Amino acid sequence: MSADEKILELVNVSKTFDRLQVLTDCNLRVNKGQTIVLIGPSGSGKSTLLRCINLLEPPTSGGVLFEGREITDDPRGADRLRRNIGMVFQNFELFQHLSAIENIMLAPMKVLGMSRKDAHDVGLELLRKVHIPERADHFPDELSGGQQQRVAIARALAMRPKIMLYDEPTSALDPEMIREVLDVMSDLSQEGMTSVCVTHEMGFARRAADRIIFMEEGRILENAPTEAFFGGDANARAQKFLSQIL
Ligand code: ADP
Ligand code: MG
Fold it and tell me: Start and end of every ABC transporter domain (predicted)?
């Protein structure tokens, strides 16, 4: 991997819903292989920022660049971006009527045109990667929350994304299941998966993140290397937030 190769960039992204200004002039650069952790109070715009990254929400102004190309107003570019981004949500959002492996097989078959057999092989390989191959034929309601979230991660990985976005992936989980999900995320980061994670799990942030971003009221107030951030270099508002969640 070449050093500091930029894969994604937000340039002066702002977002308003009706008259509510939710994001103001957000700038963010994501390099290939980097893991970025995004923190901030509830309502500060973290989810909206993630949704702007994959254009689930179009920014009101500003640009999203993927692999150097402006894609905000380019529908084909936006499609390419979405295919290359995997997203994992707080509530898993698995298809309830499909087994674990069928959840994973669906997009490769439908979107990539993969054969059922190949998609099944990919599904099993990914279930091994998230440590639950024995759960392949179980339905979501037969799985624990931690297992469901790991299926959701495997499902996202099945499209071979270049970037993974996680929106509070462990905040709906019982404490004993948080670790198993964070460990899978850490392993992926270690293997070089580019990731942007909204999480308040600061142990994970210290372990896995290259940079920490702190948001408040729709603005990015801090964007610092992990060591500096936790070493006392974070600005006063970020420090105060940290002291409240640690
Ligand atoms: P966070 O993820 O940091 O808690 P969000 O991005 O979810 O913050 O929300 C930021 C603000 O935007 C909140 O005030 C929220 O109510 C508002 N908001 C988010 N999505 C919408 C929407 N689709 N329509 C209107 N307001 C929204
Ligand atoms: Mg949120």
Answer: 8-242
pLDDT digits (tens, 9 = 90+) for 150-162: 999 999 999 999 9
How many angstroms separate the alpha carbon of residue 201 from the centre of ligand 1?
21
Which among 48, 56, 196 is the best mutation to test ligand 1's pocket, defined by most ligand atoms within 8 Å of the CB? 48
* Burial status of residue 25 (CB atoms within 10 A of its CB: 0-12, 13-18, 19 or more): middle
Angle between helices 145-157 and 100-110 (to 10 degrees): 20
Which of 193, 239, 218 is CA-nearest to residue 12? Answer: 218
Asked if the interface predicted TM-score (ipTM) of this complex is over 0.90, the answer is: yes
pTM of the full structure: 0.96
